[in-house]
Amino acid sequence: MRRLLVVEDDARLRDELCVLLARNGYEATALSDFDDAAEKILAVAPDLVLLDLNLPGVDGTYVCREVRRRSSVPIVVVTSRDNDMDELLTLSFGADDFVPKPYNDQVLLAHVATVLKRSYGEGASSAELTHGGVTLDTARCSVSYQGRTAELTKNELRILALLMRNVGAVVSRQRIQEELWASDEFVDDNTLTVNVSHLRATLAKIGVEDFVRTRRGLGYLVE
Amino acid sequence: MGFGAYIADRLAPLAVGAAALAFAALVMTVYGLDGAAVAFVCGMLVLAATLALVLDWLHRRSFYQRLEDALDALDETYLATELTERPSFPEGQIFYDALDRESKAMRDRIAAARRRSREYREYVETWVHEIKTPIAAARLVARNNPSPATESMDAELDQIEGYVEQALYYSRGTSLDRDFQIRQVVLADVVRDALRHKARTLIGARVAPELGELDLTVRADPKWLSFVIGQVLVNAAKYRGEKDGEGRIRIWAERRETGLDAWETVLAVADDGIGIPASDVGRVFDKGFTGENGRRFARSTGMGLYLVRELCDKMGVRTWLESEEGAGTTVFLAFPDSAERA
């Protein structure tokens, strides 16, 4: 499991970010005291740093530069300053990516996953998801059950991963659409229905029946 | 100032001079000077007076001419005295000094207004950036605790975010400073960015895009353009109507020849919503115009399309729309090949 460090001064946002990351298969810790932030980040030695630029008392770009000087840990800068200059400056200080606030959670997760993949290679970003004997390999884009494996399309993979990360909870169709749109698949309602029935057919081929349930009017669910 | 006007202005002294000259000629004749001598003296005097008048006229004219040239050449006409020398004749000096004082006062006022406007804008920018943290936090709270209640709060947060964004671009778009950056952008990238940005609003309204040819490069500020397209997308969601099934937004671009060797790239965003009444079509880009649809179907601030036009004008992008009631609206953005003006 990848270890992420959240460096953010707003306590509420920090906690919620940690919850979001934990729910999506990452181990998330946070810094709440920013004296010697760079030092502390290096001491934690995470796999990726989510860094807010507006920290009390310290300049985020300075922290970014300090960390980069002594470590190659990937840094994703999250900031509410959204002008081009900041973006350029941050990237020139060695940050790997830049996500403007207020971000869509799916967009943020997509950025994190991309940077992890770039830094640690294919497959490194994603733990395999397993539930009820069904194993989803997000790197290989495949699903397996009792020794039988089937390939999934990108959309099917995204849908199944979202459902398996929220086991036991109904995920609304809207939520699934948002997840797909966040990666430039602007599917409409009908396409989503088609994607889900293909996904079910693929699962049936390897002997998994009734894995993805429908809650009429609410969404889909993996129990 | 023509010579005629100059003479007309001096009619009274000239008349007096002419009368005096006639009287002098009479006196000379009475004292027995012969006609040729009287005519010679009078001719000399008239010639001298004419020469003096012409010289004086030329002298004044050069000042007024320079002032007029300066006024024509300048966009900021209040700077005209800076480009004109103080004249050497007293009336001109009085006039010049008055003008100079007036324009100095004007320049001070403008500088103060500019400073205030910049300060206000900086405040808005800071405020917008501050407000984003609580919005981001509230959004994550809603996301991390999914329930019908938090989902509808999430939708409200979307609206808040939309209004905050409008405020930011309003202050940027109406600012006296020109701080956007025109560069080469691929339309497909900007359109996708806008779609991702407005995903929740569009999905919530059950509207999905159909992307046509968009691999064309235009000159624009990518952030501004993304905002502009976002406004159009939100309108498509707002005014989709009550129909069953999904709304469609077709987005495509094409190259057009506008004249001899002059080309432009036109981006079109077409929805199949309720359309705009013909009587309103001409005014939808006006600031604060809400129209019939704004009153009947959705809360409208009359800011979206106004900002679209304002920002596009600044970037040198032409905007217009076509609409048919009940069939939909198409918004066009035309990017000239060399967007030199702006």
Set out the fold topology.
The complex is a heterodimer of chains A (about 220) and B (about 350).
Chain A: E1 3-7, H1 11-23, E2 27-31, H2 37-44, E3 48-52, H3 60-70, E4 75-79, H4 84-92, E5 97-100, H5 105-120, E6 129-131, E7 134-137, E8 142-145, E9 148-151, H6 154-165, E10 171-172, H7 173-182, H8 189-205, E11 212-215, E12 219-222
Chain B: H1 3-9, H2 11-30, H3 35-73, H4 90-144, H5 148-173, E1 183-186, H6 187-197, H7 199-204, E2 207-211, E3 217-220, H8 222-238, E4 247-259, E5 262-271, H9 278-281, H10 291-296, H11 304-315, E6 318-324, E7 328-336
Parallel strand pairs in B: 2-4
Antiparallel strand pairs in B: 1-3, 4-5, 5-7, 6-7
Please tell me about this protein's structure:
- The complex is a heterodimer of chains A (223) and B (342).
- Chain A has 223 residues and is α/β, with parallel strands linked by helices.
- In chain A, 43% of the residues lie in helices and 22% in strands.
- Chain A has eight helices and twelve strands.
- A five-stranded parallel beta sheet of chain A has the order 2-1-3-4-5, sandwiched between helices. A four-stranded antiparallel beta sheet of chain A has the order 6-7-8-9, with helices on one face.
- The longest helix of chain A has 17 residues, at 189-205.
- With 342 residues, chain B is α+β, with helices and mostly antiparallel strands.
- Chain B is built from eleven helices and seven strands.
- In chain B, the strands form two sheets. Chain B has a five-stranded mixed beta sheet with strand order 2-4-5-7-6. Chain B has a two-stranded antiparallel sheet with strand order 1-3.
- Chain A binds chain B through residues 10, 12-13, 16-17, 19-20, 23, 54, 80-82, 84, 101-105, 107, 169, 172, 174-175, 177-178, 181-182, 184, 186-190, and chain B through 128-130, 132-137, 139-141, 143-144, 146, 151, 161, 181, 192, 195-196, 199-200, 203-204, 206, 208-209, 211, 223, 246.
